[in-house]
Amino acid sequence: MPTALLIIDVQNDFCPGGALAVEGGDDTVPLINAMIPEFDSVLYTQDWHPENHSSFAANHEGAAPFTQTEMPYGPQTLWPTHCVQGTKGAEFHKDLILTGDMILRKGFRPAIDSYSAFFENDRETPTGLTGYLRTRGITSLTLAGLALDYCVAYSAIDAAKEGFRVTVMTEACRAIDLEGSLTKALDDMEAAGITLL
Ligand code: VGL
Ligand code: ZN
Q: What is the dihedral of CA 44, 30, 147, 57, to 10 degrees?
């Protein structure tokens, strides 16, 4: 059975100095690089927003970053402008080994955010990743990257829902931890039957 590593959003904007910096985000890079040779298949996600993206506080009159808004698909956190397509901030960290099979871009539709690598934030628009993995005969997945309590957790929980065996290498992740989001994400992942290492 081929093993797969799904590396989530290890991009400049989520590392120290970036627009939505996660504390210690760059510490994940050597840990992830060391994991890469152990897997048959290596996949990366890249948060990839147009400048007019609706998850940016700057695109909502008078709204501050890290507040909540209501979208047609449900509640949505408003973020600082980050990972804009083609910018330095959207590039992968320069020391991350880029090898392996595929780079999945997400969050490219202006009207909808996508934390998960599998479904956009309406929880029903598929990215196609399930089909890609199934076609390749992949049944188990290990995740690492940024941010543990958003894109990693959403991706891991969706992967479990889609029937994959899921492990999250928490050591090779860092969290944003907005209002208890880390504790909630860890609880939700455990409840979904995900192995946390
Ligand atoms: C992420 C917030 C907004 C993440 C992406 O990668 O966890 N978080 N966009
Ligand atoms: Zn984003």
A: -90
